[in-house]
């Protein structure tokens, strides 16, 4: 079952581009990455899903229901963590969270306590006295306290230290095992890589690619590093698919995309001391899409 369905979603702000003709679906149980640089249109898409802004044309549906027509009903089943969190500073953390919980017709007390313990959040503190990272933790607990079916995260890790990021990711993986679908929007590619099964790449408001994480990695470049016994002739790797060829300090490196046998035949002609083949990280993949689509 599709949990999120975007159909030709377009949003303009006055004449300015927000997102253009965006279509994709997120299936139940997925951890879906939504990546693109600042200004690509991620927040615009999320705000439309939450019914906070109206699409100019096209539609966004969640749980099979239109996000504008059924906004309040849909929102009860969504946990949303915005990129920036703002609170009434005078409140204590527990009062704010109890207030948030009162919107759901569920007893969330046990969950609030468990989540706060997990994230090492002091419920008795005044929001005013919290650091940025601790405010972020309030947002996390607030987003998860009602055990939502869909979790929408907009740049969720900013302000969290590495240990807390790790905890948070573990928490998300548990929520996913419990059955929650997750949309994870980010420009930090390593975290998307770590967590997501599938990704949509967005650039200047348009969908650039929609792929399984595994395919995204397979269909792209591999980085080769060789340590030859002597100098390699400059033309030795002049075959299609080889780019960024470099020879320095006794090491040859290049990116390769193509039939793996072609390249191993070339490599086999060399006398090697050592060799490494590395998976490209998402950063390199991302650059590839951007350069290609530029
Ligand atoms: N309220 C608004 N009024 C006018 N233009 C807007 C508004 N909100 C967003 N935009 C524009 O829409 C485009 C997409 O912005 P959006 O915030 O959705 O991108 P993003 O991918 O979430 O980036 P970021 O990570 O920086 O938030 C940008 O060009 C932005 O300037």
TrEMBL record:
CDD domains: ABC_DR_subfamily_A
ABC transporter domain sequence ranges: 4-229
Pfam families, sorted: ABC_tran
Membrane-spanning segments: none
SMART domains: AAA (SM00382)
Recorded GO MF terms: ATP binding; ATP hydrolysis activity
Keyword Signal appears in the UniProt entry: no
Keywords attached to this entry: ATP-binding, Nucleotide-binding, Transport
Family matches, as SUPFAM superfamilies: P-loop containing nucleoside triphosphate hydrolases
Coiled coil: none
Keyword check for Nucleotide-binding: yes
Family listed: Belongs to the ABC transporter superfamily.
Name of protein: ABC transporter ATP-binding protein
Organism whose genome encodes this protein: Paenibacillus arenilitoris
Top-level taxonomy: Bacteria, Bacillati, Bacillota, Bacilli, Bacillales
């Amino acid at each position: 079952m599709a949990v999120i369905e975007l159909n030709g979603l377009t949003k303009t702000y006055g004449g300015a581009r927000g997102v253009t003709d965006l279509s994709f679906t997120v299936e139940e149980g997925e951890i879906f990455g939504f990546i693109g640089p600042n200004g690509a249109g991620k927040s615009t898409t999320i705000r439309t899903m939450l019914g906070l802004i109206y699409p100019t044309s096209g539609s966004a549906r969640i749980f099979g229901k239109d996000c504008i027509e059924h906004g309040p009903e849909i929102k009860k089943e969504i946990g949303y963590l915005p990129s920036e969190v703002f609170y009434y500073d005078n409140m204590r953390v527990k009062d704010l969270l109890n207030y948030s919980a009162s919107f759901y017709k569920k007893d969330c007390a046990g969950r609030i306590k468990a989540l706060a313990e997990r994230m090492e959040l002091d419920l008795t503190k005044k929001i005013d006295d919290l650091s940025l990272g601790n405010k972020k933790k309030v947002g996390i607990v607030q987003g998860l306290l009602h055990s939502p079916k869909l979790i929408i995260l907009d740049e969720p890790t900013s302000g969290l230290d590495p240990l807390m990021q790790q905890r948070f990711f573990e928490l998300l993986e548990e929520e996913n095992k419990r059955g929650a679908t997750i949309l994870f929007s980010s420009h930090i590619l390593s975290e998307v890589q770590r967590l997501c099964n599938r990704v949509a790449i967005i650039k200047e408001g348009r969908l650039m690619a929609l792929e399984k994480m595994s395919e995204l990695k397979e269909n792209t470049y591999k980085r080769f590093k060789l340590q030859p016994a002597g100098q390699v002739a400059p033309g030795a790797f002049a075959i299609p698919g080889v780019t960024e060829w470099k020879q320095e300090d006794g090491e040859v490196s290049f990116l390769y995309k193509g039939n793996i046998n072609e390249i191993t035949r070339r490599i086999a002609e060399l006398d090697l001391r050592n060799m490494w083949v590395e998976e490209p990280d998402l950063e390199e993949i991302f650059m590839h899409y951007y350069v290609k689509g530029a």
